[in-house]
# Entry
Amino acid sequence: MKTLRLIPAIALAGLLFSYTAIAQNYQAAIDNAYSKYKDLKEGANADYIKELANVDPDIYGIAIVTTDGKVYSKGDLSSRVSIQSISKVFTLAKILEEQGPQAIMDKIGVDATGLRFNSIVAIELQKGKEINPLVNPGAIAAVSLINGADSAAKWRNIQQVHNEFAGSTLLVNGPVYVSEAGDNLRNQAIAHLLLAYGRMYFDPVQATDVYTKQCALNVNAKDLAVMAATLANGGTNPVTKKKVVSPETAAYTMSVMETAGLYDNAGQWLFKTGVPAKSGVGGGIIAAVPGKFGIAVISPPLDAAGNSVKAQRTIEAIIAELKANPNLVMPK
Ligand code: DON
# Structure
């Protein structure tokens, strides 16, 4: 009898022990990567958006949010940077949710371009077709496609989905928005070229403007990690517990992140980590480990492809230490 009563106690102790061990693993992996990379000085802030050149290059924050809502972090969690291209993920998710995957396949396309994120050649090669929603042409087309009768309604829809993914109210970084809006002739050219190919679904000037505003939403590493964790958790925010998008939408979104999240370096990234990820020229990178956790790192200096150097190295190291590559399976 006594032994029987002991069994649940032992099981509970085992659970507690393994929970503590997992928590320690997350924190240790973050701490190790932080000390390894904190003094790394490679890369340079983006400067084609003038205001980004003024951001402190030493901002370095790491956050992990698990699918059961636990938060682990290290470094600078208070500084906010503009989300930039990471926003493309959430606008894509909202379109998938409201209009279904076929709309994205038919009107934008999901194949990787293999070219730079603002490549005009990529549009020309495909005559406006197969422009991935995670590079500028596909992302501006996505803003033109998202539900909303006018640009104010489209903006509200975009803002709302970002807030729901983050579980907080994200604000626009005014100086970054003004700086990019006054200097985005290339994106306007992209939008007009798409219009010429019949692949722009709203006024190209207004679509580019709303796109520029979404790129200027301000985030810290924890906001980004919660957003990534919402994808990893099948579309339900693990902190607020709110369903933001369906599990199917989250799956489609993460697939596009696999093919094009780090642009022309997406293949190398997937080879090394196996995880869907997305970068932004503000210095953030998010990665989602399906079913387990979301991770985000902010560090503004970028490599030649426009991806944060330190954020890439940090996430790679943490995924490796936690053996979190979803393609890494130990034989039974
Ligand atoms: O449109 C642009 O060029 C920027 N607002 C966003 C580009 C970006 O973040 C590319 N990311 N690595």
Q: What stands out?
A: The first helix runs from residue 2 to 37. The domain at 26-322 is CATH 3.40.710.10 (Beta-lactamase).
